[in-house]
User: Fold QRICH1-like domain-containing protein from Pocillopora meandrina.
Amino acid sequence: IIIIIINSVPKSTVYKNKWAIQIFREWQGQRANKICTIEPGGVFKGEDIGLDVQELTESIENMNAKSLNYWLCKFVQEVANKSGGRYPSRTLYNIVCSLKRFLVEKNGEGALNPLAVSDKRFGTFRRVLDAEMKVQLDAALLFQQRRMRKKPSQTKKKICLMGTGSSNLLLNTVYFYNGKLFGLCGGEHRNITVRNIRVSDDCLRFEENSSKSFH
Assistant:
């Protein structure tokens, strides 16, 4: 039965769970201060934490509710990708969801669920997560707005269709002005020759082919 349950989990979910816990453990190992501290102006107060918060050296699956609430707040505020940039809001939320699934995988039905609205022990974490997601969303929108404000010359490539720079450009130019000056239709362009055009001192004369009919 256990084998069937494991195999029923989609491979993409298994990969996301491993990726998320790897990110958390890397952040956990790299963070210098692994002891709970009360920071001036922070979201936590002394009465909110007490003496129950474990050190960050503890595995996430073995943390109690107060420890998980505290360290997850720090995690979503500080975690960054390999290039040092912050994760987009949706990615950050998916990482937290994967961590929640990892806790269920390790601790079963009794696992802590920091995303459960009914569990007030994680109220601070949910507020911090929501605030961080809004910050990243605002940053993404600002980036898009800056891209839209760029000058057209910076975003659009100039396309030249007529001129004398190449044989194709010259052909396009002759085709265009023949139609504009002499009122030629598409089929008439194929029958035109040099003998149809005469250049004098003060004018350019076009003589139609005798086969052309008028209606």
Observations:
- The chain has nine helices and two strands.
- The mean pLDDT is 81.
